Amino acid sequence: GKSLLEPMDFTTEEMEELFLLADRIIEEPEQYAKSCEGKLLATLFYEPSTRTRFSFEAAMLRLGGKVIGFSEPNSSSVSKGESISDTIRTVACYADLAVMRHPKEGAPKVAAACTDMPVVNAGDGGHQHPTQTLTDLLTIRREKGGFENLTIGLCGDLKFGRTVHSLIKALSRYRNISFVMISPEELRIPEYVRREILIKNNIPFQEVKNMQEVLPSLDVLYMTRVQRERFFNEDDYLRLKNRYILDAQKMKLAKENMMVLHPLPRVNEISAEVDNDPRALYFKQAKYGMFVRMALIMSLLGVEERRN
Ligand code: CP
């Protein structure tokens, strides 16, 4: 079966199909309550998660399917030293689809190569997080009507933030997109993203350290958490963690219709006072995450869209 390991695994047309299905699910969720009856989803989370795991599980349950899995790998035979390949081959004996989060870059790809069961990358180290990108894109599409002619600001930990890497990759396929990267020197986007995606595709981008100076130009501001768990040195984390804090004062500089997105969890980078601003869309984004995952599950399982 088809897996989703990185954002480019779906063409823009396939993504559009997913978004249209997600729109229909949002409109009439009860029509899909039996779509995955008899199907089983396995969630294999080798790293902590709230949104990705819960939204996948909620998505499958709302489609009438069932869920098995672990969120604490030490409660499974992983703790006895079982390999990813043996784990996934075993899970494939029981489940129809697996969702895997892992601290090692490429782990879900290794898993997918060992089985015919579709495998979804739910975040691999500091590398990619394609279903977060589907969530982000669905949110932008529903709020802005599309992806073209947008100036997207990406702020915070652009080095280790896998959601940013996947989002840049996916958005690079649309017309007249430009990026403004806002980060400290130490947390700039990785070289492979700069060269292989931005420069190679002639995508306009600038890299700045100051948020205020670019805020007025942005259509979307994508805030990110400084990824403590990827730091080699705690002192570096402590030095960088509060570099950017979006507050009500800074929001005054932004366009009236600028969208504030954040994959969440946030630590300190968006003040709670921004939550009531109509431009703050991060909880709506988290909700859309469940609907786009419902569409994804149906697509990967090849479920016919038969309305109840
Ligand atoms: N956005 C996201 O991946 O959140 P979780 O780590 O809680 O799954």
UniProtKB/TrEMBL annotation:
Its source organism is Anoxybacterium hadale
Q: Which UniProt keywords apply?
A: Transferase
Q: Main EC class of this protein?
A: transferase
* Organism taxonomic ancestry: Bacteria, Bacillati, Bacillota, Clostridia, Peptostreptococcales
> What is the official name of this protein in its record?
Aspartate carbamoyltransferase
Give the E.C. number(s): 2.1.3.2
